[in-house]
Amino acid sequence: MDSEEPPNVRVACSGDIDEVVRLMHDAAAWMSAKGTPAWDVARIDRTFAETFVLRSELLVASCSDGIVGCCTLSAEDPEFWPDALKGEAAYLHKLAVRRTHAGRGVSSALIEACRHAARTQGCAKLRLDCHPNLRGLYERLGLALLQKS
Predict the structure, then answer these.
(1) Does any domain span residue 2?
(2) Under DSSP, is residue 61 helix (H, G, I), strand (E, B) or coil?
(3) Where is the N-acetyltransferase domain (predicted)?
(4) What does the alpha-carbon distance between residue 46 and residue 112 come to, in Å, rounded to a whole number?
(5) Confidence (pLDDT) at 1
(6) What is the CATH number of the domain that holds 136?
(7) Which of 103, 124, 141, 149 lies at a 20 to 30 A Cα distance from 64?
(8) What's the pLDDT tens digit per position in 82-98?
């Protein structure tokens, strides 16, 4: 990916599943090695990704190098936001970027696509839950801390 080539963000299809699962596993391993525990990779498998693909809730960022980033965007999140009103927010999870493309605007493109999708769905907010070590990234991308748990 040239530094000038912006990633194309789209809803994932079934043909993306294997690459997305590898990307999420690689991202989780990198985060763990840096001291930021990530999601449980044992739960990230074809079935996990397929569930999000079938609901059109898995986004991928791609360029000439293939898929370079991904995330999920859901209409509800009973695990982390059980008391939220339905439709007040969209919920971003599992943001992952291929290490060779870190710092090239992939996270920014994914988050902007999530913001746009949330607005399109009538949601005023885009929410996520993250490890404290990742707060700086999300704040640099224009998100704000709502509460500490």
Answers:
(1) no
(2) strand
(3) 7-149
(4) 26
(5) 47
(6) 3.40.630.30
(7) 141
(8) 888 888 899 999 999 99
